[in-house]
């Protein structure tokens, strides 16, 4: 893979190497993609106020996430069907994350088995979708524990799949070798004018998920329970009151409700509502180490990174993902020093102002 200096470089390379319908699947959002664009605009408006005259000759980028030390305040977000992007699939991404010392979140809809992903040797969290078949859910939770996963990340913003117009227009389907192997399922054949992923989701996801189901999940696992897809401050406070050990402020990367609040806008209110009782992570729109700093300054404990990792996978497999994570590390460490922060904790004490947007 040729030299890259930013995740935007990797994005361009990934676009060159991906089939058009696969690239639309990676890059697209729901509806008119208003929220997809708004996530970036919101982060670009966050102007960090650097501190001066701070000794940053030594800079510690590490933090603790659910009992495990991460080399960065960052984890790889859960994303489905990664073998669609590259033959290395989830195993390649997990191996790169392990080498970088950051957690990897394996999806229910992984195209590699949970056990194979966890065998990469890094810190693995398991992302759970609420399925109609509760026996399958129980088996997934058991397998995640036995494989050594350190947390369960319950996605709460997909009662149904958002209308992803690029996929609908493409009649998007998966190739025969890409399947949801953890649920022993078949997604189905191409349907003109529809997305087989959306059809599969409607068939197997249970839209009745509610607060009362959290107790059921906690009764079937000893792992920390994290809710992903929280945007309302009251929901975040209620989750912590019910014993949830973490929340992820996320609009699913602009792929669910088009018109939803950008994650970076919702983050400060969620942080205030949680009152330090659990970690709060930001997901959706993170593209650089500066974005990680912005999220911390807004009160986040850490971030989840999604699309840039897929860009790396498409561009060069495990090596491409490693390049993305290395760029993020270099950018974040530089941003910490320039902001007058010798460690992650000091970044959370920074103040922010609103900027009209990025400048050159």
Automatic annotation (TrEMBL):
CDD domains: alpha_hydroxyacid_oxid_FMN (cd02809). Keywords: Flavoprotein, FMN, Oxidoreductase. Residues 1-357 form the FMN hydroxy acid dehydrogenase domain. The keyword Flavoprotein applies. Belongs to the FMN-dependent alpha-hydroxy acid dehydrogenase family. This is Alpha-hydroxy acid oxidase. Its EC number is 1.-.-.-. It comes from the Bacteria. GO terms for molecular function: oxidoreductase activity. It comes from Saccharothrix hoggarensis. InterPro entries: Aldolase_TIM, Alpha-hydoxy_acid_DH_FMN, FMN-dep_DH, FMN_HAD, FMN_hydac_DH_AS. Gene3D superfamilies: Aldolase class I. The lineage of its organism: Bacteria, Bacillati, Actinomycetota, Actinomycetes, Pseudonocardiales. The keyword Secreted does not apply. Its cofactor is FMN.
């Amino acid at each position: 893979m040729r030299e890259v200096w930013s995740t935007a470089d990797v994005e361009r390379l990934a676009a060159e190497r991906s089939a058009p319908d696969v690239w639309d699947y990676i890059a697209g959002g729901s509806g008119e993609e208003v929220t997809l664009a708004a996530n970036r605009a919101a982060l670009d408006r966050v102007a960090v106020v650097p501190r001066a005259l701070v000794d940053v000759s030594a800079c510690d980028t590490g933090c603790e996430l659910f009992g495990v030390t991460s080399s960065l305040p960052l984890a790889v977000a859960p994303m489905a069907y990664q073998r669609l992007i590259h033959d290395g699939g989830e195993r390649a991404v997990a191996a790169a994350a392990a080498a970088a010392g950051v957690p990897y979140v394996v999806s229910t809809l992984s195209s590699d088995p949970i056990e194979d992903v966890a065998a990469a040797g890094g810190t693995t969290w398991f992302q759970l979708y609420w399925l109609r078949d509760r026996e399958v859910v129980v088996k997934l939770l058991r397998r995640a524990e036995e494989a050594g996963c350190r947390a369960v990340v319950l996605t709460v913003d997909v009662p149904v799949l958002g209308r992803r117009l690029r996929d609908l227009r493409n009649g998007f389907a998966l190739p025969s070798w890409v399947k949801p192997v953890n649920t022993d399922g078949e997604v189905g054949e191409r349907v003109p004018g529809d997305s087989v992923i959306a059809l599969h989701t409607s068939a197997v996801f249970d839209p009745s998920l509610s607060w009362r189901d959290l107790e059921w999940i906690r009764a079937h696992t000893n792992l920390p329970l994290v809710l992903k897809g929280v945007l309302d401050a009251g929901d975040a406070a209620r989750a912590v009151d019910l014993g949830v050990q973490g929340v992820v402020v996320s609009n699913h990367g602009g792929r669910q409700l088009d018109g939803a609040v950008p994650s970076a806008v919702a983050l400060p209110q969620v942080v205030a509502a949680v009152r330090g009782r659990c970690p709060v992570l930001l997901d959706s729109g993170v593209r650089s180490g500066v974005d990680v700093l912005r999220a911390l300054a807004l009160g986040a404990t850490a971030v989840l990174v999604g699309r840039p990792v897929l860009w790396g996978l498409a561009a060069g497999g495990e090596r491409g993902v490693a390049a993305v994570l290395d760029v993020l590390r270099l950018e974040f460490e530089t941003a910490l020093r320039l902001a007058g922060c010798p460690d992650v904790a000091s970044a959370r004490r920074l103040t922010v102002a609103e900027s009209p947007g990025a400048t050159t």
